[in-house]
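Quick question, first post here. What does this chain look like in 3D?
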Amino acid sequence: MHDLTSTAGTVAIAAGAVAVIALLCVVALGFRLRRYRSDQRLLLGERREDLVAHAATLHEQFEALSQYVQDMAGHLDERMQTVERRLDHVVAYHALVRYDAYGEMSGRQSTSIALLDATRSGIVVSSIHHRDQARVYAKQVHDGRPELELSPEEDEAIKLALEREDGRPGHA
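> Answer (accepted):
Ran it through. Tokens below.
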């Protein structure tokens, strides 16, 4: 026992303790490395590439997907602009006014219909009914103004159509 109390013995005990601690660290690191390899196999499958190569492959695939999405978004923007241009020329505002054109108490058989697009251009069609005849008139409207003078009923049809712009019933 004298050898353990000497300086050389103390150094030997300290070296043994350091060796035991190092051995325990190596065992713990071995378990951690096994767990990391298991996680890597779960992530990569059975391919023989490391995480850096896998990350590079994922980055390339992400860039390709990103480019595809940008191309499709550009294509959709072009299509949307085409659709919006076309929609500007469809009927956006409409109204119908019924009236008795000749005061004959015929049941308000005459009508004026305003059909306007988003630019407030379109037509006003009037059908004037009499007992033995009917006449149809059409007048163009550009930017809310008629080309020809309107009858009061035609003017009312345009006003009603444009009043419905705020979303009340009747706005198309």
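The chain has four helices and five strands.
The longest strand covers residues 134-142.
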